[in-house]
Every structure is written in C-alpha cells, then in structure tokens.
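Let us practice reading a record.
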Amino acid sequence: MKEKKTRAKTKEMRWFILIGIIGLLVILILVSLSFSQEEKSKNEGEKKPPINLADYGFTKKKLEDSIKYTLGEHSFIYRNGEWYYNGKKCSLKKGVTPPSFILPDKSTVRVNKENQIIFEYPDGSLERYDYKKMNGKHVLKSRIRRDESEKPIDGEEHFILTLSTDFSKEYGNAFYWEWEYNEKTKKKEGYIYSEKDRSVVGYGVEDERYIVSPDSYKVLRVKDGEKIEYEYKKGTWRDAQGNEVKDENILNVLKDVHRERYYYRWLTGEVSLGKILEAAGEIIPAAEKALMPGLSGWIAKHWKNFKEWRETVDKRFAKACLGEEYWKSEICDAHLEKLNKQTLVIESPAGEVQFVAHVEAERSKPMPKECPCKADEECIGGICYKDGQPLVKYFYKITYGVRAPSDIALTPEIDERGAISFTLKLEGEVNKYVYVIEGTQKPYYFHLKPGEEKSAVGDEALLFFSTRKYDKICILFGKKPVGKQGKISFLCNKIAESQRSYENWREAALAGAAPGEAPTLEPEFNPDI
C-alpha cells in the first residue's frame, strides 16, 4: 500500500515537472518573440526616415539599404538611422521645422518647402539655392551668397529669354548670369552665358543685361522685362527706328564679351594669337568711333612694333602652342610678359615672340566616390567607405602649353637634350607631380629643343578623378628660360571650382578619359595623383 502511494506521488511529481518545463519554454518563446518584434520595430524605424524630404521638393529613390533624396546637386542619404549629405555624415536637428542638418564643419543646411536650400556657415555668411521645376526636373533658378550683414557677395541666376533668330539660333533661349558684387560701384556685375554650350554671350550690371549677337553687330538690352535691340549700321549704333544711340555700355559690353569669348577659344586651343589684335581694326574699333578714339590708333601710338609683332605671333606663337587656326579678338597688351595671370610670353631683343607658357585647371565640387572601390575601401549602398567614413572625389581638367625659345640667348642652360625642360605639379592637401618616372614619384621633365612645343588642350586636355583636393597647378622649369626679370622658375595658377552639376561632370568624364581608363602615357601619368 505504501509502495503504491509512493509511485502515485512520483508520477504526480513528473507531471508537475513536465508542466513546469512546458511553461518555461512558452515563457522563453514569448520573450523571444517580444525581443524580435522590438528589434524589427527598431530596424524599421532606422530604415524609415523621421522626415520625408520628398515633401520639400526632393526626388526620392529607394536603394538596397538606404533612401536617397536629391535636389539639384544636393543629395541626402538616410541609412541605418544616420544622415549623409553629399557623402558626408551629418546630423538632423530634432524638433526643428523646416528640417535643418549640421555638417562636420559646423555649417547648417536648412531645407525649405519652396524648393529652397539655405546654408549657414560658421563665419555668419549665408548661401541660398532656389530651384524650379522644368520638364519634370528640378533645375537651379538662382544661387546667392551673402555675408553676415546680408550684403551680397556673389551669385548665379538662370533665366529664359525669347530672342530673334539672329540670337536664338546660336544661343538657344536659356541663359545664366554669374555675378560678383562690386564694392566700388555697389552693383552686381558679371558675364552672361548660354546654357546651350556655356559660351559667353553677354554682360549684366545690376538689373540691366546685354546680349551680344554671334557676329557682334547686334546687341540686345534687357531691363525690367523690356527688350531693346541695337544694331551697328553706317558707322554707329542705332535702335529699331534707325536713331543713333550713344550708350557707352554697348562698347564696354562688346569689349568684355570679346575678351572672354576669344580668351576661352585660346585656352581650349580652338584659335591662336596672331590676329588677336587684328580685330582692333574690325568690329570693335568701328563700333567705338562714335564714342572714343579707335583702339587700333591707341595701339599704334603706344606700340611702334605692333605690325611686326602681329606677323611674328601669327607665324610662331599661334602655330607653335595652341593650334593652326588664327584668332580674332580685341585684347591688347603692350607688356607681353604679363599677358594674363595664367600665361607667360617672352620677347627676344629683336622684338620677336620667342617663348610662351600657359597653364590652368578646373575642379568639380566634391561628389560621392561611387563603387567599385579600392582594396582597403568598402562598398556600402553604392558609395565607397574607408574606416567607416564615406569618401568623396573631385573631377579635374588641366590644360597647358609650352614652347621653347628659338633664340638660344634666352636659354642659357641649353644642352644636348634641349633648350628648356618642364614638368607639371599639383599643390593642395598633398603635392603631386602630374607626370612621373615610371614606377616612382619622381617628376618627369619634358625637354624641348629650340622652337619645339608641347601642349594638352582641347580634346587632349588632361581629365581625371582624384579623392584629393588640389588648389594650385604649376609649370616648373628644370632648364629655365630667361625673361626681362631674369630666369623663370615656374608659372602657377589657382585651380577654379566649377559650378557644374554632378551630372555635367559625369558626362564630361565619360566623354573624356580618366587616368584609369586612358591609354598608357609616356611618360607615366601619376597613378597616385
């Protein structure tokens, strides 16, 4: 009897233990499900941005592990609870409307509902971007930068003009005005460009804009929405009714536009220098007769050897460095050694142009470095990261031209290899030679014999990407030429930052050849640039 009771009690205990185990398992499962739900909610919360920038005019695109918002050249990415602006990590100000983001340099980016972005920089200055919708896309309407007292510094304004065939056939009807605030005149001043090909077409001063026709015989003046067209006829400028017009702005605009227009053609290698002054005997001097003494007369008065110099330049300078085709322009400068900041010209004692050097470079704004990445980098969401930080890159364009003097008196270091030698160097956060001896970082010097030239212009301009930011481009001379001030060691120029959008740069890059895609250069194009 006692044994039966013991068995029953044991059996009962087993049931209690089994029920307890089952209960414990149920509790563990419920707890696990609860944690999973919390983790799922947390992950969903991290994937879903706390704000939707599409409500502020941005284009929204869902990526594999993130959400990308784009407005013009401005890009925000939301990934795993973190925000990135143009590849740089930033933080969203909580409880602030409209949304504002703090960048690593302590600048603030404020996003407004009117397709507007405002930068507030640490020095107190502001930069405002306004966009408008056109053909289903948001395009830049204006960019204006002001100092801490809200005084304008510089800007860019885009606009549409309905023009006559003389203008529209060449320029289209979309333009933009890049201006700077002139402290002396207290006005906004700057060149007007065609959106079609970014060529210089006019000049703007405050609320007045002048557009010059391709042949320079017509000028369109726009003010307060009113358009007045002037035409050069019978030795003077006249309005549509044939009345003579004495507007000094017309002449000033013509000079400014021609200076930029043909200087640009020179830089790109499209034209050469010999007739750069010859145009002084054509459109510009004729147009200015009603206003001031002829430019060609001024040149003849101040420069006795002008004619001989022009012929020399036609045959030597133009052919040697920047192309066969002759130019037309009204630029004049009796002091050739200082033709412009990027160009150096030397005359022989006989007055002949013997040596020419020119260099300039352009840099894009920073853009995300897209995959594929290097071995020590990681690809996340289509962007390269290193040590947990997103990388940015820049697109560069370099043009240059160098011609050695024919007169050996200007090359005292001449030897059997050549009269002069030179290399290119980039300076910035690091300094790098553009051309190096293969397998090293030592500079490669090009040696030019008397009268020989080397250039990279037009289709042969140097195009490349780099994660480094360079601010200056220099031509360094090994065997140095001699000018009026003695031996010349270098010629440098600041690298200009382009206002082109990322898409424009991308198209330019694909159209050209980046170092990684270019054919092997001789000497080697620096692989570590």
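A brief commentary: The first strand starts at residue 59 and ends at 62.
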